[in-house]
Amino acid sequence: MPPVARWLKTRGRVRFRAQKVTAVRLDLTTHLPDLGERRMEITFALNGAPLGACTLFRYGWVELEFRLPDPVTSRNGEPFELEITANQTWQPRPGDRQSRDDRHLSVAVCNLRYS
After folding, report:
1. Strand order in the sheet with 49-56
2. Residues 28, 105: contact at Cβ < 8 Å?
3. Do 82 and 46 meet the contact criterion of CB atoms below 8 Å apart?
């Protein structure tokens, strides 16, 4: 059974509470048509600071881990915010009259973990 994931548009944000963060891990995938020709570029930021980037050029789940060189400590107990940005979206079934799906999707993300 595949994992339960959240689909994003071109940008998604996740807020979480922790005292400090030393690493962020997640799984992601896309169903963008013609992925070999139209590669998906994805960037990641933590509290507005660049965390990393990747390019999806084939289908399937990808496990990513971003290790921070120095632990980031929460300021005054404020939540952390992970931002994920993709360079493009696609629509699953915009013209299908029976099961129309005209959402604009980029990547699906699941299993977000931090330490």
Report:
1. 11-16, 80-86, 40-46, 49-56
2. no
3. yes
DSSP labels for 84-110? EEES--B-SBTT-SSS-B---B--EEE
**Among 83, 3, 90, CA closest to 40:** 90
Q: What distance in Å separates the CA atoms of residue 70 and residue 46, rounded to the nearest whole number?
A: 13
Predicted local confidence at residue 101, as pLDDT: 75
Beta bridge partners of 101: 93
Angle CA 37–53–33, to nearest 5: 25
Structure tokens at 59: 């289908």
Q: Write out pLDDT tens, residues 20-29.
A: 999 999 999 9
| Global confidence as pTM | 0.89
Per-residue model confidence as pLDDT tens digits over 19-63: 999 999 999 999 999 998 999 999 999 999 999 999 999 999 999
